[in-house]
């Protein structure tokens, strides 16, 4: 049976529609640090929403929207960060951390992996595989430009710790001390502000926004630097601030492989459509 170009195009568009509806998922999981920061609208017992991460900072810290990381979402192979904390300006006096990625399930991301606050540690402790490292850092601000490094899981990669919360460690890559970090990609992240109290994050709800302290939604962070097959169930993302006030953890759930494949299928279909337009 031979399809006409128009039929092929219709099929491709229908598939694109189906994929885009099913594609975006909130992958946030609980950071496993008990309790909650103290503040108006912050329940001492813990946060709300997916992973209990909304209206939540770590115990003993300031609980407020301006310190709250809220969610990681994944759409195909694009990662997004949601938070009341402004990644680009930071929140005086503490700037944003790097986004650490584990692709083989051996990262020691849970509290207790590194109990001390001694300034630096190394990736023999944490075993992350990649890091999205923000550049152009001046004081608490970053430009949104970032470089991506693949990381050796040993002492050849040095990491800065947070100042106050061991359970949120590590903070950022210590580039000067890291022969085992290899630059493989780069990009730029921008933010969109939403001042509504309640917003939708890919089918889940985030709260606490206002004109004074909005929700900041990052642009897509393409994960196409990962090797084929590395974006799958169990792949994990981790982010915090210099103080460690809020730790945000995302992990691709079971069925995530399907999600990633759908992302790949979507790219394939876009190519298919373009080819047919030329014909
Ligand atoms: Ca919030
Ligand atoms: Ca939070
Ligand atoms: Ca948290």
Structure description:
With 279 residues, the chain is of the alpha+beta class. It has one domain (28-264). It has three helices and 18 strands. It has helices spanning 5-23, 123-126, 256-278, and strands at 24-26, 28-29, 69-75, 78-83, 99-102, 120-122, 130-134, 145-151, 158-160, 172-173, 181-188, 191-194, 199-201, 204-206, 215-218, 221-222, 236-239, 248-251. The strands form four sheets. The protein has a seven-stranded antiparallel β-sheet, with no helix packed on it. Strands 1, 3, 4, 12, 15 and 16 form a six-stranded antiparallel β-sheet that branches. A three-stranded antiparallel β-sheet has the order 6-9-10. Strand 3 (69-75) and strand 4 (78-83) form a beta hairpin. Helix 1 packs antiparallel against helix 3. The protein is globular. The relative contact order is 0.22. Mean pLDDT is 89; it is low at 9-21. Residues 54-55, 65, 68, 70, 84, 206-208 line the site of one calcium ion.
Structural class: alpha+beta
Cα separation of the termini? 19 Å
Biggest beta sheet attributes: 7 strands, antiparallel
Radius of gyration: 20 Å
User: What's the mean pLDDT score?
Assistant: 89
Can you count the helices? 3
The main sheet orders its strands as 2-18-17-5-7-8-11
Helix content: 10-25%
Q: What characteristic shape results from the CA principal axes?
A: globular
Strand element count:
18
The ordered string of helix (H) and strand (E) elements is: HEEEEEEHEEEEEEEEEEEEH
Q: What percentage of amino acids are in beta strands?
A: 25-35%
Each distinct ligand: calcium ion
Total domain units? 1
Q: Provide the low-confidence segments as ranges.
A: 9-21
């Amino acid at each position: 049976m031979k399809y006409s170009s128009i039929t092929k195009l219709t099929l491709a568009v229908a598939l694109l529609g189906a994929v885009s509806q099913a594609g975006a998922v909130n992958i946030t999981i609980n950071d496993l640090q008990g309790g909650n920061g103290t503040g108006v609208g912050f329940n001492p017992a813990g946060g709300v929403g997916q992973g209990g991460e909304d209206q939540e900072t770590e115990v003993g810290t300031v609980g407020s929207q301006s310190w709250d990381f809220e969610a990681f979402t994944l759409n195909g192979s694009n990662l997004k960060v949601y938070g009341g904390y402004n990644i680009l300006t930071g929140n005086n006096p503490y700037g944003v951390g790097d986004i650490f990625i584990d692709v083989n399930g051996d990262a020691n991301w849970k509290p207790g992996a590194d109990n001390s606050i001694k300034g630096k540690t190394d990736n023999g402790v944490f075993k992350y595989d990649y890091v999205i490292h923000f550049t152009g850092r001046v004081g608490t601000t970053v430009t949104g430009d970032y470089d991506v490094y693949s990381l050796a899981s040993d002492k050849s990669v040095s990491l800065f710790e947070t100042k106050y919360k061991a359970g949120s460690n590590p903070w950022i890559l210590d580039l000067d001390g890291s022969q085992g970090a290899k630059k493989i990609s780069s990009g730029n992240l921008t933010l969109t502000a939403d001042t509504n109290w309640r917003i939708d994050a890919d089918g889940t709800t985030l709260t606490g926004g206002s004109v004074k302290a909005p929700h900041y939604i990052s642009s897509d962070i393409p994960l196409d630097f990962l090797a084929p097959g590395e974006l799958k169930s169990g792949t994990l993302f981790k982010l915090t601030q210099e103080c460690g006030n809020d730790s945000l953890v995302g992990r691709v759930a079971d069925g995530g492989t399907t999600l990633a494949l759908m992302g790949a299928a979507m790219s394939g279909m876009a190519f298919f459509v373009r080819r047919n337009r030329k014909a």
